[in-house]
Amino acid sequence: MAKSKVTAEEALAFHLEPTPGKFEIRATVPMTTQRDLSLAYSPGVAVPCEAIAESPETAYDYTNKGNLVAVISNGTAVLGLGNLGALASKPVMEGKAVLFKRFADVNAIDLELDTEDPEEIIRAVKLMGPTFGGINLEDIKAPECFIIEQRLKEEMDIPVFHDDQHGTAVICAAGLINALHISGKKIEDVKIVLNGAGAAGIACLELLKRMGAQHDNCIMCDTKGVIYQGRTEGMNQWKSAHAAKTELRTLEEAMVGADVFLGVSAKGAVTQEMVASMADNPVIFAMANPDPEITPEEAHEVRMDAIVATGRSDYPNQVNNVLGFPYLFRGALDIHARAINDEMKIACAHALAELAREDVPDEVALAYGKALSFGRDYIIPTPFDPRLIHRIPVAVARAGMDTGAARRPIIDMDAYELSLKSRMDPTASILRSLNTRARAAQSRMIFAEGDDPRVLRAAVTYQRSGFGKALVVGRADDVKAKLEAAGLGDAVRELEVVNAANTTHLQAYKDFLYERLQRKGFDQKDVHRLAARDRHVFAALMLAHGHGDALVSGATRKSAHVLERINHVFDADAAHGAAGITAVLHKNRIVLIGDTLVHEWPDEEDLADIATRAAGVARHMGVDPRVAFVSFSTFGYPVSERAEKMHLASDVLDQRRVDFEYEGEMTVDVALNANVQKAYPFQRLTGPANILIVPARHSASISVKLMQEMAGATVIGPILTGVDKPIQICSTVSTANDILNMAVLAACGIG
Ligand SMILES: NC(=O)C1=CN([C@@H]2O[C@H](COP(=O)(O)OP(=O)(O)OC[C@H]3O[C@@H](n4cnc5c(N)ncnc54)[C@H](OP(=O)(O)O)[C@@H]3O)[C@@H](O)[C@H]2O)C=CC1
Ligand SMILES: CC(=O)C(=O)O
Ligand SMILES: [Mg+2]
Q1: Binding positions for NADP(+) (predicted)?
Q2: Any known ligand binding at 377?
């Protein structure tokens, strides 16, 4: 069923607010001082100009050329709306530009050219070539688009790619590989009917034939019906190449017994009768935009066995070129490609098809409001799949390098993959070093909440990624049922399921617990209940007895509750120096904030402890610690009793002779801004602080959540530290991936 349909009013408001259109341009260099001005413009700018004049390839180093794509249209085939002209095509082209940015961090700018003359377009695009690393032609109608693209490819030294042709073909091919996989048919055997012999249609059929579809099994139709050999009306050389030797004359006739229908024509071009006449398990890709040739509801009404895809995001199976162009260009730009060739396109199609057959991350389920797994309603990855950015460009770049399209081949593909992850996810590089350390540690990880499917998936991934053994606290039948429901039935035998009924250690656990709790108001019965029935306590007891090396919990209960339970077994409290440290990542910068979990109102000794814990966490993350004790005053002004402890904490660390930088008290701007620090030449930090120790838990929570909400910062933690054994507590809104990351932190011994 379609969901979240948009209204015309919503669509207009979206384009009007907050400012007209969909994007703006931002500077990436500082532009605050006169010196900045001298460097960015005259006289400094003369230096790169001369360097480029001497060595043109350095334009990729000194300008934004290497990450800049032009989205060019004349508006003659705007989606399936027809010839709306250059100006009216601008919303689509701006949209394309923001998709480039959002999905692959490619800077793109729309350029609408007010001409229908191919020669004028060719000349204009060719002349602007020096500016760009690639050219995306869009919504230019056939057959002019073929002439324009062909000439530009021949005459330009950067990739020229008409997305309606090749982007559509690549996604269609990816979807078809999987749809045929499900329907048990082979591309060599299937009868394909393609409606719409324009830019998208011709390219789709060409690519499918290159991938094995037989010419004699393919029928192409346009507004005049079947394109058959000998037809003269409405023909051109590109249609002729696909003309079939057949007696069929209409789409209706062609659809009888067809295995596959591909529509890149117009709204409503297919009827229910046509769908009813198709072969068993028919594949229907109704890709016309904004409205498909037939809706999935209409198709399913007459054929429940149909696998249906559309070009829209509000139905399952979105076969839309948005899955391709951002990543094709990302891969091509990163090898300074001369072109995007067929091999790069086919590599992209296969990489997309393979991705759809893998387990789907929770982030995707969150974006779509439901869990997805490979099948009739999920044959192609969704645009919000975070794996696309590091899987697809790698395949494209590799194919480009193998086929000589690369000017600058990538030497280290692993590093490239990591750089792609980091482009869209600031945690990626930090997590990579933690992952490496976790793999080396081979910790037996106790997952306390084996009754939660997210936890089970995290546990399976933990073990399958080679981090170590996953021990899951739960009931074997329940774990089995939940793994099977998550499509991970084969993992049942891999995980070790532990519970009070199957352990031989229950009595030892209870004795240990009674020893700790007997003077805290707990009797034997209470202790039995806790040890045998509370999964957090049971898991902590396992850890305390060395029956696991680290523990992760908190996905199903609030962290305060989990911490209280863990405290029955460990001294994970303020009095014993435990602390919670949260890493905030924003604009390529990481700042740790503490204490975000344990201390309500720490005194100066506690603050010094928290700083020391935070410095330890920073080092685990590969960050050289620089601590600032922050407040609303800087070095004693304004005078305030409340700021006193922040100042004293620094003195405590002086006495302790710690091996990291610290300073305080100071306001956050002094802590984080090297220029503002210059006003205090006596202060001891050698650069902006990367650890902020705040006066109390409320200020910690406010700071972290303000950064998250206002700035869109990424947050890792709170990371629990200062406990005898590594224990990490995730949050109830954690995805399987978040839980896995917490397990990795625990496995690294942060605790
Ligand atoms: N899902 C996706 O990712 C994409 C979808 N599309 C969609 O594909 C469609 C075509 O786009 P594009 O190829 O760029 O446009 P073109 O203008 O280049 O080609 C349109 C083709 O469709 C044919 N056509 C139009 N109406 C009908 C009809 N009712 N029955 C049969 N054939 C018809 C035209 O026939 P004739 O030659 O006789 O005029 C022409 O061959 C659009 O709806 C567009 O939104 C395009 C790109 C990507
Ligand atoms: C998606 C797209 O490019 C089109 O419909 O034209
Ligand atoms: Mg288009």
Answers
A1: 78-85
A2: no
459-514 pLDDT, tens per residue?
999 999 899 999 999 999 999 999 998 888 889 999 999 999 999 999 999 999 99
Distance CA 19, CA 23 (A): 9
| β-pair type (283-286, 307-310) | parallel
The verdict on whether residue 82 carries a ligand-binding annotation is: yes
Q: Pick the closest to residue 748 from 445, 459, 528, 422 (CA basis).
A: 445
Using the structure block, give the residue that is written with the tokens 């209204």: 7
> Do the annotations mark residue 664 as ligand-binding?
no
- The domains of the chain are located at 19-162, 166-402, 434-566, 578-722
In 164-271 the beta strands, taken as DSSP E runs, fall at: 192-195, 218-222, 225-226, 260-263
* Ligand 2 centroid from CA 240, angstroms: 24
Say what the pTM is.
0.79
Task: Please state the rounded mean pLDDT for residues 527-536.
Answer: 97
Measured in Å, residue 84 CA sits from the centre of ligand 2 at 14
Whether 606 and 659 have beta carbons less than 8 Å apart is answered as no
Contact call for residues 714 and 585 (beta carbons, < 8 A): yes
CATH for the stretch 578-722: 3.40.50.10750
Q: For residue range 612-663, what is the model confidence (pLDDT) as tens digits?
A: 999 999 998 889 999 999 999 999 999 888 889 999 999 999 999 999 999 9
- At the top level of CATH, the class of 19-162 is alpha beta
- Check if 139 has its Cβ closer than 6 Å to any atom of ligand 2: yes
| Amino acid at residue number 268 | G
**Domains 166-402 and 578-722 agree in fold:** yes
Q: Is 79 in the pocket of ligand 2 (CB under 6 A)?
A: yes
Question: Are 562 and 553 within 8 A, CB to CB?
Answer: yes
Catalytic residue set: 96
Longest CA–CA separation in the chain, Å: 97
Closest residue (by CA) to atom 4 of ligand 2?
79
Half-sphere exposure of 571 (CA within 13 A, CB side): 7
Are 721 and 581 contacting, i.e. CB atoms less than 8 angstroms apart?
yes
ipTM entry: 0.98
| 109 and 96 Cβ atoms separated by less than 8 Å | no
Probe target for ligand 1 pocket from 287, 315, 380, with the most ligand atoms within 8 Å of CB: 287
Question: Quick one: which atom of ligand 1 is closest to the CA of 82?
Answer: 17
Instruction: Specify the CATH number of the domain 166-402.
Output: 3.40.50.720
Measured between alpha carbons, how far is 580 from 349 in angstroms, rounded to an integer?
45
